[in-house]
Design goal:
CATH architecture: Orthogonal Bundle
Shape: globular
Structural class: mainly alpha
Bound molecules: heme C
CATH class: Mainly Alpha
Radius of gyration: 17 Å
Order of helices and strands: HEEHHHHH
Helix content: 40-55%
Oligomer: single chain
CATH topology: Cytochrome Bc1 Complex, Chain D, domain 2
Largest sheet: 2 strands, antiparallel
Strand order of the largest sheet: 1-2
CATH superfamily: Cytochrome c-like domain
Distance between the termini: 50 Å
Number of strands: 2
Length: 152
């Protein structure tokens, strides 16, 4: 009986944590994005990013993210809280999306991360980032904001 209560409390905790991670506003580079703009970012994400980074940001190889596969290359990393995207500040992430990844110079060890500067406007890139930030929890968002302020 007691076990069942603990299970129920755990479930309630999960639901509460889940609610906490659906923010009304997201800040990118000091600009506030509302839920409508986040939804636009989600659409761009679905069109341009999800094929590699996963529909929910789970990464190309969710079972072994950031590990080389049979070809010896590392795939698209997760953007959700499990990944390390939230360790980087806004400028770094925006530049990465605009100009492409390390794979452009090291295609042997990484699957390609294309540059999106020709396809997406700066506003669209920021909206995508706003959407990616909804995949993190409050603490991760706060820490990422600190990285942004530190210029990281
Ligand atoms: C063709 C597959 C592919 C597509 C499409 C793609 N990516 Fe990537 N992305 C990768 C790979 C592979 C890496 C890791 C290798 C590297 O860094 O070059 C990566 C790395 C990244 C990184 C740096 C790692 C991190 O999490 O901090 C960011 C940020 C990123 N991608 C964002 C995006 C966004 C946003 C889009 C959509 C606009 C996108 N990517 C579309 C394959 C892709």
């Amino acid at each position: 009986m007691r076990l069942r209560w603990i299970g129920l409390l755990g479930l309630l905790g999960l639901v509460l944590v889940g609610c906490g991670s659906q923010p009304e506003e997201i800040i990118v580079r000091g600009v506030t994005y509302d839920t409508k703009q986040m939804a636009q970012g989600q659409q761009i994400y679905a069109q341009s990013c999800a094929s590699c980074h996963g529909a929910n940001g789970e990464g190309q190889f969710p079972d072994a993210p950031n590990k080389p596969d049979g070809t010896g290359r590392i795939g698209a990393p997760p953007h959700n809280g499990i990944g390390h995207t939230w360790h980087h500040g806004d400028e770094m992430l925006i530049r990465y999306i605009r100009e492409g990844g390390i794979s452009l110079t090291d295609p042997v060890n990484f699957y390609p991360m294309p540059a999106f500067g020709d396809q997406l406007s700066e506003d669209e890139i920021m909206a995508v980032l706003a959407h990616i930030k909804t995949l993190w929890n409050d603490e991760q968002r706060t820490r990422q904001q600190q990285a942004t302020e530190a210029g990281g």
